[in-house]
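for the recovery benchmark. tokens below, seq after
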């Protein structure tokens, strides 16, 4: 897919390259928490004490019982860390956790700012949202297998399961291809030191390229996986979507498009609002140039186009983002009424193509050639700053 080619060219040293959409599918089917926990050993409770206390500021309350359940999954040496909005079961080193916390809290705040701006009413979740953060892929994969029935691979370093309302990640720095990259960097540094000892010249370009690749790959994954999956979790828990039922009770393009609004750099105050998702825009521009955009009617009414491994999934992700971005920028009021109509779907059934088109048109007007033209020219006009 287009993104695949673009990244492949830019990152010769990385072997694991998939369209970002494929990394980020949320998993609507999972065993219940109780089913899963029966098969897990009980870990010692560590700092789950005092969990009933309310969080400070605008924080969500913690619940001791929920913490205890979470801890069972947290892996060897697992502990619970409370932030304002999350209970995180983790077994990583503290600096790794701190960076992670910064990102997931920034995502929560970005989603709430978005909600305020769009003007839909939401209720805060009743308790802290649960996240698991594993140091190693193996424990993450074991948890994934328990809750979703599929162990995944290192290329899917995170997921959110609405069924048990928990997201899970592993420390992506430990993915084998990043470890390999780190080894290459260490070797290049040694060569540089060796050269310096003997007063020889050393070409630093390869070292710099390797370091750049490592940093870019980590950042890309943090945004398209960690921020993306946690955005799904916050959006579901604030009630922006219909309660989880069958796979397509919610329009899939909308669930994915909304999450991608929060893949922009954290902490700039603009994620989900002012910022443009440059990676998705890059994909969109390539698709547009090569005439591969999916007709909007199909995107809106056919969830199969956006389910990996559909051939169209990469394109559909970029377009889903672009359509939500367009609606938020240009049709804010209508977007609020669309969200309200969708989240009232309590019948938990799969909606048909006709029903999806009808829901869209009731909020935004006819989804015709004129609509498509206006949308395309608006996206083409967005400031494009390749990263
Ligand atoms: Zn997703």
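predicted aa per position
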């Amino acid at each position: 897919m287009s993104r695949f080619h673009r990244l492949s060219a830019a990152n010769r040293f990385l072997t694991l390259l998939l369209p970002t959409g494929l990394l980020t599918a949320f998993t609507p089917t999972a065993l219940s928490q109780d089913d899963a926990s029966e098969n897990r050993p009980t870990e010692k409770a560590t700092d789950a004490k005092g969990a009933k206390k309310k969080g400070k500021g605008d924080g969500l309350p913690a619940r001791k019982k929920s913490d205890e359940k979470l801890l069972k999954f947290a892996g060897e040496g697992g502990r619970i860390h409370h932030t304002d909005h999350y209970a995180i079961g983790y077994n990583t080193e503290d600096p790794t956790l701190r960076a992670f916390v910064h990102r997931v809290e920034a995502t929560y705040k970005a989603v709430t700012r978005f909600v305020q701006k769009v003007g839909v009413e939401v209720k805060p979740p009743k308790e802290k949202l649960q996240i698991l953060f594993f140091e190693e892929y193996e424990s993450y994969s074991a948890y994934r297998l328990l809750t979703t029935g599929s162990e995944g691979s290192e290329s899917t370093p995170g997921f959110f399961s609405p069924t048990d309302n928990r997201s899970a990640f592993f420390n992506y720095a430990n993915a084998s291809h990043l470890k390999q990259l780190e080894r290459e960097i260490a070797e290049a540094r040694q060569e540089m030191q060796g050269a310096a000892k003997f007063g020889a010249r050393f070409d630093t370009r390869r070292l710099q390229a390797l370091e750049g690749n490592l940093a870019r790959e980590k950042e890309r994954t943090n945004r398209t996986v960690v921020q993306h999956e946690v955005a799904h979790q916050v959006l579901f828990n604030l009630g922006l979507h219909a309660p989880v039922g069958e796979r397509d009770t919610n329009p899939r393009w909308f669930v994915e498009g909304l999450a991608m609004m929060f893949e922009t750099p954290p902490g700039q105050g603009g994620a989900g609002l002012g910022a443009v998702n440059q990676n998705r825009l890059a994909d969109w521009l390539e698709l547009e140039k090569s005439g591969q955009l999916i007709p909007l009617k199909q995107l809106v009414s056919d969830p199969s186009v956006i389910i990996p491994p559909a051939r169209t999934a990469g394109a559909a992700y970029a377009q889903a983002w672009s359509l939500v971005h367009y609606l938020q920028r240009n049709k804010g009021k209508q977007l609020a009424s669309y969200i309200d109509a969708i989240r009232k779907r309590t019948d938990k059934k799969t909606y048909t193509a006709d029903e999806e088109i009808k829901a869209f048109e009731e909020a935004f007007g006819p989804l015709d050639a004129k609509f498509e033209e206006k949308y395309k020219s608006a996206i083409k006009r967005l400031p494009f700053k390749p990263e």
